[in-house]
Amino acid sequence: MSQLDExxxxxxxxxSKRPRNFGPLPEANRRAEGFNRLCGDRVTVLVELDGETxxxxxxxxxxxxxxxxxxxxxxxxxxxxxxxxxxALFQRFHQMVTxxxxxxxxGMGKLAVFAGVSxxxxxxxxxxxxxxxxxxxxxxxxxxxxxxxxx
Amino acid sequence: MAIRAxxxxxxxxxxxxxxxxxxxxxxxxxxxLDNAATTQKPEAVLDALRHFYTxxxxxxxxxxxxxxxxxxxxxxxxxxxxxxxxxxxxEKEIIFVRGTTEAINLVAQxxxxxxLKPGDEVLIxxxxxxxxxxxxxxxxxxxxxxxxxxxxxxxxEVPLEAFEQGLGPRTRIAAFAHISNALGTVNPxxxxxxxxxxxxxxxxxxxxxxxxxxxxxxxxxxxxxxxLSGHKMYGPTGIGxxxxxxxxxxxxxxxxxxxxxxxxxxFERTSYNELPYKFEAGTPNIAATIGLxxxxxxxxxxxxxxxxxxxxxxxxxxxQLLEGMAGVRLIxxxxxxxxxxxxxxxxxxxxxxxxxxxxxxxxxxxGHHCAQPVxxxxxxxxxxxxxxxxxxxxxxxDRLAEGLKKVQEMFR
Lengths: 151, 412
Known about the structure:
The complex is a heterodimer. Chain A is of the alpha+beta class. Chain A contains five helices and four strands; from the N terminus they run H-H-E-E-E-H-H-H-E. A four-stranded mixed sheet of chain A has the order 3-2-1-4, covered by helices on one side. In chain A, a hairpin with a 2-residue loop joins strand 2 and strand 3 (53-62). The termini of chain A are far apart. The chains are: A alpha+beta, B alpha/beta. The interface between A and B is medium-sized, with 21 and 18 residues.
């Protein structure tokens, strides 16, 4: 598989064209907005937190295929996870897309599809925007959080 | 300092000119279409940079030794080269700065300090690069003046009526691009300047995108200020030019203080140096200035009329290719354009377009091009922009079109 095909795998194209869990979440009690100044991508991550458990996650906004697919797959990956598990997944995802030493896509499930992003430094921010925003939403108190930037 | 592309009879020979550029020689498979961001550098410019450091490295305007005299002579020769290039009346009117951004900041800040009062107005257009918006916002904030904007139409043009309507009794300066970086629109600058002058309003022209494409004659234009960047016209980064009419440069206060811009300093009082040195505080980017001089020489050795005609032909070819593709929409369809093809691909974000094009050796820019208000006007977050240089060929644009087909297949 070429580097380009690895970046834009079928799963990425599919989630970018038909994002899952896209739209409002009236039950949300945590939310944060992310903005990538470089390309103008915007994402709002909405979370319904039930005690320590992420009951539902949805997102809104617009962006490139990588950032949209990443947000879409994020919502599937963290649903039902505890705060600690979601945070650990964010850290592992971040290490994977930045190609940090010792990082791997093993056990990452569908999220492994973004391993190829590490070959494209200019696109790392696209893949990680929704995750940074989730991190912000989960770390914030149950009020509206400040927009985060991946710059 | 070989200039192989010198003086072709009628048609401009881009393939020969390409051989003047070491990076393009080394990467024959590259279709470099990001010239509005920065151009590649010809051998003559690289030679001039190296020659300064290997043979003439010295500070200027202060050393009596031979190296210092040679460096000063080279530096001032570059100023005369730029004066000739812009057809300025005097070399005192050529100020070396870091680039267009710094040139505009120089004028905006000195205007703010000496000319703008609360309630005064500054007029720009809806076509501007951030560097011709934000310096004026800062100037207005500091002085209490108001920023007014002449709106653009759906083709990405500034209608003369809209510009004229923006000129009011309190307008103290008008600032606009000669050619838009985001859309390629060529503004009717001579007419805009005449209308501003008819109301006693001085004009700054942002020429960053024009200098590489069209012959600029500041006296014929009668502009009060003209700003340009060396690196967008085949010169080095970190060097640019502010042309200013001598009467204005004398009226405005110094901008930055430091060495070289003074004639005498005591703790009680400092008197300032004459033009152009009044605006050149501190040791300048000597090597890059000399490099810019070489870039000007390089451009002047080309048949610039033939080059402009050639670039227009390329633009027409590219426009035809993109207009012929279903799902591709050109943004910016002004009657007069130069050098830029900005477009969106239906259903595909410009960043994805840029990444796929890069994978097939086509370098373009994706984003808002530091012109977010232009993007807002067209209700899009970003575009993909292919921008032309003198070494581009029809084949480069054909490869762009092929690459776009690949984009559409991938994201079908």
